[in-house]
Amino acid sequence: MDGIAVIVALIAGGLFAGAYGSLIGAGGGFIMVPLLLFLFPDERPAVIAAASLFSVLFTGISSTTAYARLKRIDYKAGALLAVATLPGAILGVHLVSLVPRMSFEIAMAVLLLALAAYSFIRAQMSRGRPFLIGGAFSYRTLVDRKGTVFVYPVRAMMWSSIAGVAGFLSSMMGIGGGLLQVPILVYALSMPIQVATATSQFALTATALTGTVTHFTAGNLSLGWWNIGALTVSVIVGAQIGARHSTRFSDSRVTQLLSLGLTVVGVRLLMTSL
After folding, report:
1. pTM for this structure?
2. Ordered per-residue pLDDT tens for the chain, 274 residues
3. Which of 7, 10, 202, 238 is most exposed, with the fewest beta carbons within 10 Å of its own?
4. What would the DSSP string read from start to end of 105-166?
5. Domain ranges (residues) in the chain
């Protein structure tokens, strides 16, 4: 594939990844990584992860500004998640350099399919009472710009544990921590999905920044600035589109989109890697 065709593919993929990732709170990295693996078959996993995470950073910034206008971000929870992701984000960058490309692709596919199955199964079950793991909890109330009231439990210990794992996977796989955070925040910790997607975008900005700086110092941002720039600009635009249209989708629809996206990309990646 020649240079112009690659740029066009990156722009188209970036627009879709930004919009879709912002809509479901996952950052779009789970779309960008398979796309980059396809377009650059000879690149190391660390280089692919670095380019994707760089774009995820700007997706987070772009969609966070849009969600802030909608008043759907839980800033206290987001700050807690962001701080807890930092150690894992740094560790993930150093470990990805040791992973062979085929192992990286298979691990990515398995992760996506596992999360898709988890999201689908939990969506079919009654949420019931929130789990009491992690000690005592209290309830928080958030009112968005349209006047919708969200009431949900707060369990700081569990949130911190989830964020630590998400930060590690975010930097190692280049996918953004929201892919793991959103399903667990919604189905295990009973946070409304509309709040979880917005808060996740806010938190993953800090995670992606930490991972991007660490990748840069390790020399992994070497995919070419024309390629990285085309992907980044397009995901910024796409993230604004996704966040602005998020109010048109119900909780169940966003959940279905999350599960569908994970399944399609996971199956495709597993087929190509094997």
Report:
1. 0.71
2. 678 899 999 999 999 888 887 777 666 777 888 889 889 988 888 899 889 889 888 878 887 888 899 899 999 888 887 787 777 778 877 777 777 878 877 887 887 787 777 667 656 654 444 444 444 467 888 999 889 999 888 776 666 666 677 667 666 766 666 666 777 677 667 788 888 888 888 887 877 888 888 889 988 888 988 999 999 999 888 888 887 776 676 666 766 777 777 787 778 767 767 6
3. 7
4. HHHHHHHHHHHHHHHHHHHHS---SPP-TTS--EEEEEE-TT--EEEEEE-HHHHHHHHHHH
5. 3-273
